[in-house]
Each structure stands twice: as C-alpha cells, then as structure tokens.
Amino acid sequence: WYLDRLGKLERFRRQIYSVLLTPMGNGLWLGLLTVIEWPKDLSEPTGISSAAPQRDTTNVYLVTSRDGVHFDDEWVYAQRPLIPKGTRWSDWDSGFVLPAAQIVTDETTHRIYYEARSGSRHEERFDKPGSIAMASWDRDRLVGVHLAHGDVEGWLTTKPFRLRGLAVVLNVDTQLACSSVTVEVLDGEENTPFAGFGHESAIPLRGQSGGTRALARWAEAGASLPRRLLGRRVKLRFTLR
Known about the structure:
Layout: E1 14-25, E2 28-37, E3 57-65, H1 74-78, E4 97-99, E5 104-105, E6 109-116, E7 131-138, E8 154-157, E9 161-162, E10 169-171, E11 181-187, E12 202-203, E13 213-215, E14 217-218, E15 233-240
Antiparallel strand pairs: 1-2, 2-3, 4-6, 5-6, 6-7, 8-15, 9-15, 10-13, 11-15, 12-14
C-alpha cells in the first residue's frame, strides 16, 4: 500500500509495510503503522562511522481509529515515530524494525515487542542477525500534548464519549511557574458546560508532577461528578497555560 496525500509520486517517499490494529474498548483502536521510508533508495553512505540509515528503512508510527476502518495517520506526516531508533549505523536498533501483531496491554502498562537490526536497510535485512526488543509505556500515556507557544493559552476538546465514572483523572505536568490546567465538562450534544462544571468553576491544577495522577476539581463539586451524568454523552475541554 502507498500513501498519496502529497500526490501519486509519494509512493517513492514512503509506502505502508504493515498495519496492526488493537481494539482498546469504548470505540477506540490503537494501531502500529510500519512505513518504508524512501524504499529501494540505497544511495546513503554505509559503515560503522556513518549515521543511521534514513532511506530504504522502516519506522513504526502510532495510528488511531474510531471504527477499525479509517485511520488517523498524522504521526507519519509529522515524522514522529512511536519507537525511537539508534542514531549511528552501529547501534543495535538503527536499521530495519518490525513490530509484533498487537499492542500488549495490562492494568498498568502498554508493551510493544519488535524486531530490530543494526544498520540494516530493508533490501539487506537478512544480511545481519536481528534482536527482539520491547518498548513499554505507562498505560494511557503513549503520547502527550503541550503548548506550542508558552505566552498564550491553549485549548483541547475531546471527542464525545459516554461517562462511565464520577471523577476525571489526569496525567499532567504543571511544575513550571505559572503553568496550569483546568477542565470543563460539556454536554456532548449541545457543546455547552454543565452547570457548576464550566470554566469559571474549574479549579486550576498547579504544581503537579508529570509522574503523578491528579483529580480535576470544581469550586462547588470538588473532585466528584454528579451521578445524573453517568451514561450521558459528554466532552472534556482542557485549558492549558
């Protein structure tokens, strides 16, 4: 398969090697898209002293889906692979990489098992022995967002989902001076805040370490959402400073 957002000639820049999809529940799939970068282009210098190959090599990108059919492939075009690779030709994981068929998830961790080869391009992938490696993340912390410009506010609104709990637990890092995050709970259909859970009622989260989980709070409700919202379609709107 080839990608053509940039036109039909994009097939000379990148092609899809494999697509692996893991259902995570609640209408969300996480996937691994293995992409061959500059396929069959062997023009780069080789050798122990060379940089890691960038052409005719593979990278593994995170993709997401809401129906198991359509994919968000923005990480590919941002050129941000999910699994980092070695930077020197001699590094054990600088060349061809290929993940196993599923993301393995338990109560605390996401794990990806994958094959890696040192300084090996796709056309030469069987010339050297491979290694089996594992990449792991704390559960629900595969990726994050931060402000592009520190001197202005940023907003992020989730897709609508059915509320199944009575608290909003966040992974945030607000240790920098003057940084904070507030959370609003919106009606998923009307796109307006529920009474007592709008911007004016939200208590800013400050001084939170990125390694801890924090409860969103509101002036009147504290950290608890009302039971009448259980099962309702809601959105969360975050204001980042």
